[in-house]
């Protein structure tokens, strides 16, 4: 499932193909994904210039010249591919249409952007740009972890009196937007905080320390995604999925990498999701 760094990588990969470019034609090949598409979606996209391609949490937002914004959510299995870009960044030939190519954007610069989603947990919607933040998916979101509103005081205030484990608190999209299971595990490991510790019981100093750690974990992953984009010419044109090495996520039973530790990494289930941590280093 794509997390924030993967979505940001997709956004960066789409940008040269879409930003400032007219959508010559949009093919909408079915009525819905997770939810029905907005009415007349193909018509409302056709002829519009993508003025800006933004990201909010795990959503890609394309601001159109019509005053509407196209919201794209990759869901569990949504994939975006770019082919045929004349700028030479994407030298892939247009592929033969695949099953599950649900939406295809034919860009005026010759690029073709395809949204493929076999499981259809993805979503697209059109919102009025001016009031996009009021959309039901966006209005519930807390600050962006890489933005200025996510800071030490914000996290201290959000954790104060909270009886839930810190793991759940960081997954709460109202506290910080876009953090998912993988990067929360990684951040807590780097911050040496046990995922089981109650958020309200962590000292202000340790909570504050988590802020730059969370940013760094995400920035490192975005950087890894950036390298994957540079290798893009050899790839199949698919954006956003790249190889990672995690310090703790997915390493159950393997030795902790902290120098002098080596304790086997533990896995527990919290709110139905796996938490990986070192019981020795993380308190
Ligand atoms: Zn350890």
From TrEMBL:
Gene Ontology biological process terms from the UniProt entry: base-excision repair
Gene3D superfamilies in the record: 1.10.8.50, MutM-like, N-terminal
Cofactor(s) required for function per UniProt: Zn(2+)
Domain FPG-type as annotated: residue spans: 247-283
Binding residues for DNA: 100, 119, 162
CDD domains listed in its UniProt record: EcFpg-like_N
Pfam families, per the entry: Fapy_DNA_glyco (PF01149), H2TH (PF06831), zf-FPG_IleRS (PF06827)
Enzyme Commission designation: 3.2.2.23, 4.2.99.18
Catalyzed reactions per annotation: Hydrolysis of DNA containing ring-opened 7-methylguanine residues, releasing 2,6-diamino-4-hydroxy-5-(N-methyl)formamidopyrimidine; 2'-deoxyribonucleotide-(2'-deoxyribose 5'-phosphate)-2'-deoxyribonucleotide-DNA = a 3'-end 2'-deoxyribonucleotide-(2,3-dehydro-2,3-deoxyribose 5'-phosphate)-DNA + a 5'-end 5'-phospho-2'-deoxyribonucleoside-DNA + H(+)
Cofactor: how and how many bound: Binds 1 zinc ion per subunit.
MF annotations from Gene Ontology: 8-oxo-7,8-dihydroguanine DNA N-glycosylase activity; class I DNA-(apurinic or apyrimidinic site) endonuclease activity; damaged DNA binding; zinc ion binding
Keyword DNA repair attributed: yes
InterPro entries linked: DNA_glyclase_Znf_dom_DNA_BS, FPG_cat, FPG_Glyclase, FPG_N, H2TH_FPG, Ribosomal_uS13-like_H2TH, Znf_DNA_glyclase/AP_lyase, Znf_FPG/IleRS
Segments forming domain Formamidopyrimidine-DNA glycosylase catalytic: 2-122
Recorded superkingdom: Bacteria
HAMAP family given in the database record: Fapy_DNA_glycosyl
Quaternary context: Monomer.
Job description of the protein: Involved in base excision repair of DNA damaged by oxidation or by mutagenic agents. Acts as DNA glycosylase that recognizes and removes damaged bases. Has a preference for oxidized purines, such as 7,8-dihydro-8-oxoguanine (8-oxoG). Has AP (apurinic/apyrimidinic) lyase activity and introduces nicks in the DNA strand. Cleaves the DNA backbone by beta-delta elimination to generate a single-strand break at the site of the removed base with both 3'- and 5'-phosphates.
Protein's name in the database: Formamidopyrimidine-DNA glycosylase
Species the sequence originates in: Ruegeria atlantica
């Amino acid at each position: 499932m794509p997390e924030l760094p993967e979505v940001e990588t997709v956004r960066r990969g789409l940008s040269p193909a879409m930003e400032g470019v007219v959508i010559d034609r949009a093919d909408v090949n079915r009525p819905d994904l997770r939810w029905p598409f907005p009415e007349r979606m193909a018509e409302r996209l056709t002829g519009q210039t993508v003025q800006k391609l933004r990201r909010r949490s795990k959503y890609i937002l394309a601001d159109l010249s019509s005053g509407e914004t196209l919201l794209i959510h990759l869901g569990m299995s949504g994939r975006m591919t770019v082919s045929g870009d004349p700028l030479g960044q994407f030298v892939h030939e247009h592929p033969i249409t695949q099953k599950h190519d649900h939406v295809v954007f034919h860009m005026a610069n010759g690029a073709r952007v395809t949204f493929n989603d076999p499981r259809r947990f993805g979503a697209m919607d059109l919102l009025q740009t001016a009031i996009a933040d009021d959309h039901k998916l966006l209005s519930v979101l807390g600050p962006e972890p890489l933005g200025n509103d996510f800071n030490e005081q914000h996290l201290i205030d959000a954790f104060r009196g909270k009886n839930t484990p810190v793991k759940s608190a960081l997954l709460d999209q109202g506290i910080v937007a876009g953090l998912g299971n993988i990067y929360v595990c990684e951040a807590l490991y780097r911050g040496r905080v046990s995922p089981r510790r109650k958020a309200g019981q962590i000292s202000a100093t340790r909570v504050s320390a988590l802020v730059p750690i969370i940013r760094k974990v995400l920035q490192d992953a975005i950087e890894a995604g950036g390298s994957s984009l540079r290798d893009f010419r050899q790839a199949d044109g698919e954006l956003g999925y790249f190889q990672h090495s995690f310090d703790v996520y997915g390493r159950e039973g393997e030795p902790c990498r902290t120098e002098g530790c080596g304790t086997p990494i533990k896995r527990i289930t919290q709110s139905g999701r796996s938490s990986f941590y070192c019981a020795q280093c993380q308190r």
